[in-house]
Amino acid sequence: MTRKMKRAALALAAALLCGALSGCGAEEPAVTETFAMDTVMRFTAYGKNGQAAADAADREVRRLEALLDRTDGDSEVSRVNSGAGAPVTVSGETGRLIQSARTFSEDTGGAFDITIAPVMDAWGFTTDEKHVPDRGTLDSLLPLVDSGTIAVEDRGDTAQVTIGEGQSIDLGGIAKGYASERIEAIFREQGVASALAYLGGNVYAHGEKPDGAPWRVAVQDPQDTDSCTGVLSLRDAYAITSGGYQRYFEQDGQTYHHIIDPATGYPADSGLLSVTIVAPAVGPDGGDGLTGGTMADAFSTALFVMGEERAIDFWRRSGYEFDMVLVTADGRLLVTDGLEKKFERNEDAGYIYEIIR
Amino acid sequence: MRSSVKLHPTRWDAAVAAVILLLAAVTGGAYWSRTLSAGNRLQAVVSADGRELDRVDLTALSAPETRTYSGSGYSLTVEFSAEGVRVASSDCTNQDCVHTGEIHHAGRSIVCLPARISIQLTGGAEDAAVDAVIG
Questions:
Q1: Is A264 helix (H, G, I), strand (E, B) or coil?
Q2: Shortest Cα distance from B131 to chain A (angstroms)?
Q3: pLDDT tens track for A87-130
Q4: Whole domain around residue B32: which residue ranges?
Q5: DSSP-based three-state secondary structure for A284
Q6: Are B56 and B82 within one domain?
Q7: Contacting residues of A for B20, CB less than 8 Å apart
Q8: Residue ranges of the alpha helices (H) in chain A?
Q9: Three-state DSSP class for B114?
Q10: Domains plus CATH for chain A?
Q11: Residues in chain B, pLDDT under 70
């Protein structure tokens, strides 16, 4: 090789190296933000199919909202409610989700119950007119809160759902979790290896970040919403939080939050400020309706209602695969041992830290 | 040992070296400029119905600044400062956006559901950055 050729080769190599370096860390994700299911959602996806996946996720949550939103008179859930007392034919998908909710209600001893809808209405939580209902109204409505009366006959593509007369159902405590599970399936179908779906208090972390690091998801401090109790490092996992500190109203100097205890008809007062459930992704074979985001959503509400002791007992004995972060009103941060190496606590938040085994 | 005068650098070798150094400087400068301008600067991104309305570089603010945004028939007055952002007032029905208070760290957001407006903080110090906040 002549001297000139060597110089040219060196210059070319330098130019290629510089070009490659300038591209380092430059991969921009596709991001789609949308308002659906009464919250803001953000889908972030990397790779050549990132935009297609984010757009498909957006379409999917809108499709599910049209099926499951009981404030939409045309939804399947609205048809079930308006046909209370008689069998109503819905899609197999809606029927199976209602069946999952029924199972969660049974397994949590009623701490999660989709038949809470009439009580929610009495509080005005689905309207702009929130108020404390009188005791007599609640006493008359509480007998309607009973998922045991729900019957679901699965016929494959369709299902027949029957609820009791006077009952109505609200899938708000499970719909976003189910939606996040559908988004996991979309990310897989699109061949996306790195993505994050944020659905209000719900997150699904798909794969890992493009640099190989886990997704960092902060768990908000219920007593200082600009701070966090700690940060979860997640790969292929769901993390879903329920707490009474964001949606509430005040009346006569008292604060009333939106998570109603099905046993009392009043906002749950269990000594917990927030519950975060972490569950593994359902994987390429899909879930059975009792795992992943659907389960995590239902249990974040149920365990908030249960309180510390019952929640820990449930975690130990239920047989469901999940971990959790509990924030108690007396200043403790309880983390189950499966998260010991995945949860980086924020010491400045001032909570007493305990590992549950 | 055999030595060769042929290996002594010439003006052309110096020129090639200069080109390499120049390319390295330009590439490095562009990389760090991009990192500083987009990554490490705390920015507030205001969106309505998923469409970006405004992007405010909080790091560049020397004094608090107030701006008004409208969406779905509601109006929000938003106060930006070098430290963070808050919704100072809103004529929305539930006031959740006002209740959220001031946010200061990347990953945090304020959402007004009735107005379908979100304000998200991005960038900021690398060690404090998270990909999402749940709660």
A1: coil
A2: 5
A3: 999 999 999 999 999 999 999 999 999 999 999 999 998 887 88
A4: 10-37
A5: coil
A6: yes
A7: 10-11, 14
A8: 3-22, 50-68, 76-82, 92-107, 117-123, 135-141, 175-189, 292-306, 308-317
A9: coil
A10: 73-169 (1.10.3980.10)
A11: 1-7, 24-39, 125-128
Give the H/E segment covering residue A33.
strand A30-36
> How confident is the model over A154-200, as pLDDT tens digits?
999 999 999 999 999 999 999 999 999 999 999 999 999 999 999 98
> Distance between CA A180 and CA A171 in Å, rounded?
14
3-state SS assignment for residue A89: strand
Which residues on A lie below 8 Å from B49 (Cβ)?
Answer: 34-35
CA distance B74 to chain A (A): 14
What gap in Å lies between CA A241 and CA A275, rounded to an integer? 5
- Domain count of chain B? 2
Within the 197-216 window of chain A, which residues sit less than 8 Å (CB to CB) from chain B? 198, 201-203, 205, 209, 215-216
In A, which residues are within 8 Å of B107 by CB distance?
218
Pair A104, A298: CB distance under 8 Å? yes
- Assess whether B67 and B117 both reside in one domain: yes
> Based on the domain organization, do B60 and B25 belong to the same domain?
no
Burial A46-79 (b: 16+ CB within 10 A, else e): bbebbbbbbbbbbebbeebbebbbbeeeebbbbb
C-beta neighbour count of A228 within 10 angstroms: 26
Residue B27 lies in a domain: yes
Please, is A253 exposed, middle or buried when counting C-beta atoms within 10 Å of its C-beta (0-12, 13-18, 19+)? exposed
Contact of A295 with A104, CB cutoff 8 Å: yes
List the Cα angle B124/B125/B127 in 5-degree steps: 135
- ipTM comes to 0.89
Pair B135, A246: CB distance under 8 Å: yes
